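PROTEIN DATA CARD
Card holder: Cobalt transporter ATP-binding subunit
Chain length: 278
Origin: Lacticaseibacillus zeae DSM 20178 = KCTC 3804
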Amino acid sequence: MGNVIRVQHLNYTYPEAKHQALTDVSFDVAKGEWLAIIGHNGSGKSTLAKNLNGLLAPESGTVEVAGMTLSEETVWDIRAKVGIVFQNPDNQFVGATVADDVAFGLENRGVPRDEMVKRVDESLERVGMTAFADREPARLSGGQKQRVAIAGIIAQRPEIIILDESTSMLDPAGRQEVLGVIRELKDELNLTVLSITHDIDEAAVAHRIILLNDGKINEIGTPSDIFAHGTDLLRLGLDVPYSEKLKDALIQRGVAMPKAYLDNERLVDYLWTLHSTM
Ligand SMILES: Nc1ncnc2c1ncn2[C@@H]1O[C@H](COP(=O)(O)OP(=O)(O)OP(=O)(O)O)[C@@H](O)[C@H]1O
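Structure generated from the sequence above:
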């Protein structure tokens, strides 16, 4: 499996800022991988996402996407490969109807009308929003709005989807709805997913997690590697999985617990075994 993203020694400073927003960031992403990016407020997550699709231009270092090195010449081709779903669904709509909205990006790219109609239908079908094609986007629920935003992106046939806090304004049901759609699309279309999130449960479903701290990569590892830091993550301004908090509270009370990260199910299994041997 080849790499679809390669970032090497990326540095970025905003024009009017004193501090570097990203410092010497390097990592690879394999095609078809789900990578979560976590870190405290202001750690550089959104800046990194914008450097990946050329919304911001790296100050130094290189960004390669789908075999192209990001530059003025490649920025439009790269942008076509990387779709970003942003946090606030209301800021993402331009069309008067759901179908118009999904068509917008294709119109801009000069896709012929027949092809456009086909792709709009197909994309709405994939996110389960066909019945809403003629509705006004503003009247949809938060989860439905994000599904429409996702349809607008997949209509453009990207290889990579970045979720930039895309579920953070949704209720738990909306969050599950959107993540479910992404999971299905990822498998059907062999997409690579980067999810920038504060939601620890969303990070836990990734293959790997990048932990950013003050614009630098603190660690890259599997969810088990990262969550094994337990309550130390709180010091980096992050939340800790519920199972780790519970484990910590049990350790405080003198219960012998394994060091490795246990998700909810494995924690229950462990406690059950402990209970059965008492
Ligand atoms: N347009 C801007 N101009 C100047 N500085 C900025 C700008 N946008 C972000 N920054 C600064 O760059 C750093 C990284 O910000 P960024 O938005 O990438 O962080 P983040 O991890 O996405 O934060 P959050 O979780 O709050 O969205 C912060 O110090 C922030 O204040």
